[in-house]
C-alpha cells in the first residue's frame, strides 16, 4: 500500500472521561505505532502519558487499542493498520481502568492471575523451599507439551482487552490468567492442582468462556488461551462427573 | 452459589445437551414418521398409551430440555442484564423444573 506523507493520529487524552486529540505525524518507512506515539510525546506534546519498556516484543507493556483493536504497539507496523487516508486512532486498552491518556491500569489484570493461583507451588515443598530432588519431566509427554504451548505469555493484556466475557462480567478471570492456570495444571512438579482447579471453576472462571477465540486471534505471541480454557473445562467436567473432586 | 455449584450447573448443561442431541433426533424422526398418511389423535394415543418406553423417553427429554434451557437463560441474563445472585438462581431453578414439569405432565397425559 502506498504510504501517505503524514499520519493523522487521534489519541485519547484524559482518564475514563476524556476526548481525542489530533496530531499530525510524519510517515516514515518501517515505522511502528510505538514510534508514532513516541514522536508525539517527544516532539509535539510532552504531557502525553503512555507505557513501554523493551521495544522488541518481550516485556508486554506497550499494548494499546489501535484502530479499535488491541495490539502490541512496538511490533505493529503502521502500514499494516493505517487507513488509506493515513488515519490512526489510539486508545488505552479496553476492559481496564484508565490511568491517563494511553496508560491503562493493569492491576486488576494481574490480581486475577493471583486469584487463579497462577504461581508455581512445588509439590514436595509446600512452604516454597527447594525440593530435595530433581523431577524428571519428559519434554514429549502430553502434559508437558500442553504446558509448553502456553508458557510464552508476556502478560501484555491484549487478550484480556479483547475478551467479550470480561466486558460482560468484570469478575471473569480472563484468558491470560486461565491460560497460566492451565500451564500449571499440566506441570507435574506442581502440587496445588486441586486448589487451582477450584479457583478457576464457575461463573467467574473457565465456565463462562464462550470460545469465541478473540484471545487466540489477537494474542501477539500466537498463544491459544481459548484451547487452554477448553482444557480446564474438560478436566473439570470429568473430575466432577467421576466424583474426583 | 459456590463455584462448585456453578461447575455442577455447567456439567448438567453439557450432559443434558448430549441427551438432547439424541432426543431431538428421535423426536424429529418420530414426527416425520407419524405424519405420513395423515395425523390423527387415535394414532398418537395408540403409540403412546400404556407404552412405558415412550413415557420414559419423553420424561427424560422434558427434564433435560427444562434444565438445559433454564441454565442457559441464567447465563444469558447474567451476561446481558447483570441479573445474578441467589434469588435469581432459585428463580431459574424453579423455571427449569416447572418447564420440565409441564413437559412430563403432557407425556403422562399421553401415557395414562
Describe it for me?
Chain A: It catalyses: a quinone + succinate = fumarate + a quinol. The complex is a heterodimer of chains A (245) and B (112). Chain A has helices at residues 33-44, 78-81, 107-115, 142-150, 158-162, 164-168, 175-185, 193-200, 214-218, 225-241; strands spanning 6-14, 18-26, 63-66, 69-72, 87-91, 98-100, 103-104. With 245 residues, chain A is of the alpha+beta class. Chain A folds into 2 domains: 6-104, Beta-grasp domain (Ubiquitin-like (UB roll), Roll); 107-241, Orthogonal Bundle (Fumarate Reductase Iron-sulfur Protein, Chain B, domain 2). In chain A, helix 3 (107-115) runs parallel beside helix 7 (175-185) and helix 4 (142-150) packs antiparallel against helix 7 (175-185). Chain B is elongated and about 50 Å long. In chain B, helix 1 crosses helix 3 (52-81) and helix 3 (52-81) runs antiparallel to helix 4 (86-111). Chain B is mainly alpha-helical and 112 residues long. Chain B has a single domain, classed as 3 helical TM bundles of succinate and fumarate reductases (Up-down Bundle), CATH 1.20.1300. Chain B has helices spanning 3-34, 41-48, 52-81, 86-111. The interface between A and B is medium-sized, with 16 and 17 residues.
The biggest sheet of chain A, with number of strands, parallel, antiparallel or mixed sense and barrel status, is: 5 strands, mixed
Radius of gyration of CA atoms of chain A, rounded to a whole number:
20 Å
Q: Decide which structural class fits the backbone of chain A.
A: alpha+beta
**Helix content, binned percent of chain B:** over 70%
Largest pleated sheet of chain B: none
Kindly state the mean pLDDT of chain A as a whole number? Answer: 94
Pathway (chain A): Carbohydrate metabolism; tricarboxylic acid cycle; fumarate from succinate (bacterial route): step 1/1
Keywords (chain A): 2Fe-2S, 3Fe-4S, 4Fe-4S, Iron, Iron-sulfur, Metal-binding, Oxidoreductase
Domain 4Fe-4S ferredoxin-type (chain A): 143-173
Pfam families (chain A): Fer2_3, Fer4_17
